[in-house]
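Subject: complex prediction, re-run

Hi both,

The earlier run crashed halfway through, so I resubmitted it with identical inputs.
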Amino acid sequence: MNLKKLKSSKARRLHRSLGAGASIFVLFMVLSGLAINHSNGLGLDQRHVSQSFLLDWYGLGKPEKIHSFAVGDDWLSFAGSQLYLNEKPVATISDGVGAVFNGEILIAAGSNELLLLDHDGNLIERIPWVPIGAAPIESIGLYDNTIVSVKSAGQLWQADTQLLNWRQADDSSAGPLWVTSEAAPDDLQEAVTASYRGEGPSLERLLLDLHSGRIFGTIGVLVYDLLALALGFLSISGLVLWFRGRRNGKPK
Amino acid sequence: MLKAWRKSFVVLVLTLSLPALVYADTVYETELEFLTRAFVDSPPEPNLLWLSGDRKSTVRQLLGHDYAALRLRYWCQAGRSAWVLNEIGKELPITVGIIVENNYIKNLRVMTYRENRGGEVATPAFTDQFVNAELEDNNRLNVRIDGISGATLSVQSLTRLATMALFLHTESNCSNES
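This time it finished cleanly. Structure:
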């Protein structure tokens, strides 16, 4: 009899502890479930998270480095493989080397191609470098403020005024002014970083991921599975305790 | 036992590197090789054709979208023009070299194929269908291009580029030399 009482008391203590622990989880699931059910009405699908740590969590990290070049009154910036004219993404380019303005068009150089852009950032032409020079582009500059020059494997190349033909130039002549990246204004760097990271997930997406545990990856889902099993156990243990109480004539 | 482990390791490494192999660009012909073939060893200097105004509108109509550049370079000699054009297949651009002469397609060849499926469009059995094709009044090809199962989007891209090259030839100074 004592053993039975002891077992029953242990079961009750386990039931209480699990119940107290699970109550927080249940409350969260109830509240998040209600919010998800009414996400359209609450406008959660239209609002996006912008907190830096959440964007990082979702893999929308900052660019490793932003290389900016002053081109006339504008800035051309390389962030990852994205090219920006001021804060506007205009094209993709790999291994950004530099950018110049020859008085008519903007020229951005990657290690393997040159991109010609108009003032609105429209792509005029993408010129692959391989048919011109065998080695990757190392730097870009301007000779006499107009002639676009490129250094590749230590050799100097110069374009005609239309950037249609390239010729190898004598390196001993007065060299072009090679461009180097400059520190763009802080607000521009922030705008480029924000554009690079893109719009964060919607609040509805965040709630769904929190509700399902997917925000913590596979481990989160497994932990939620365990919590769900604990809730199942609670309901069964509750029923068992209730039936026992009824059988002993003292429902509790 | 050790040999079996080694074999398993090699198979595992090969399997894991398969996606990288599948997604690699396939270069069938470089620009220099294309031009050398088009103009028998003496490629002329390139010319420029700007896509603006009505020309831009027509190209948009032919492709279903704007071409991804505002100007195109082409090579012209004795009424023959050569074009290197790009068009998205499914997700990545296909680079195609097209030779036009007397308003007919003399040759069309896939220069670089980047998609992981549909590479059959690069075979001569497919590209030879474009030879001698010309534009009808409604800016459509006068030949029927047979499709390839599993490469529908790439087939459509090449057909659009062939149409575009024929139109651009008529817009270029090269057509006056014919």
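Residues 18-22 of chain B have pLDDT under 50 and may be disordered.

- K.
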